[in-house]
Amino acid sequence: MKAIVEVTICLITVLGSVKSAEVFYGIEGGNVKIDCTYQHEYNENGKYLCRTRWIPNNALISSGDPETKGRFSLYDNRSTRVFTVTITELTQKDAGTYYCGIDIKRNVDEYTEVEVTVNKAPKTPPTTTRATRSRTTPSTTTVKGNTDNGQTRDCTSSSPTGDACSGGTVLVTVRI
């Protein structure tokens, strides 16, 4: 019984000291910037971002690559000892665990675990705008709109008094 208690206490101590990964947030269709800090002695080492540790050549982008590789870009600010990876055009597939890697020659690479959360883009409600024509200034107004049964119709007026639209006011709904 004493051995079980000691093992349990040991596991609690070990698990309690595990540092949780830093979380970075983005919105679908937007960008996320992942900041990876490193120690001064790694200033000249290669930096990279990957999804799986300890597998050779699996970097999504690395400091030896061009500055931008597909939707990924990497910038190494050596004065602050932070390299930043930007992922653009986020999708739900981009969410998950990543590893900031430091290439250490003749040794095991140094990794920092980070988490990326991708939130769904907010749905914007339709915006309604009222446009009125002046009765004193001639104008032409054409509005394309959908009728209740889904057909498209044009509503055009070329004079301040002759109106093919109802009452001189056009209701326009814009979806953004």
Structure description:
It is elongated, with a radius of gyration of 29 Å. It contains one helix and 13 strands; from the N terminus they run H-E-E-E-E-E-E-E-E-E-E-E-E-E. It has one helix spanning 2-16, and strands at residues 22-27, 32-37, 47-50, 61-62, 68-69, 72-77, 82-87, 96-102, 110-119, 127-132, 141-146, 152-157, 169-174. The protein starts with a helix and ends with a strand. A hairpin with a 4-residue loop joins strand 6 and strand 7 (82-87). It is mainly beta and 176 residues long. 9% of the residues lie in helices and 41% in strands. The longest helix is centred in the first third of the chain and has 15 residues, at 2-16. Strands 1-9-8-3-4 form a five-stranded mixed beta sheet, with no helix packed on it. Strands 2-7-6-5 form a four-stranded antiparallel beta sheet, with no helix packed on it.
Keywords:
single chain; 176 residues; mainly beta; five-stranded mixed sheet; four-stranded antiparallel sheet; 1 helix
Gyration radius, rounded: 29 Å
Describe the global form. elongated
Number of strands: 13
Helix content bin: under 10%
Q: Uncertain runs with pLDDT below 50, 5 residues or more? A: 3-18, 137-176
Approximate strand percentage: 35-45%
Instruction: Encode the helix/strand succession as letters.
Output: HEEEEEEEEEEEEE
> What's the story with the biggest beta sheet?
5 strands, mixed
Helix-strand category: mainly beta
Specify the number of helices: 1
N-to-C span: 66 Å
Strand neighbour order, sheet with most strands: 1-9-8-3-4
Overall mean pLDDT: 74
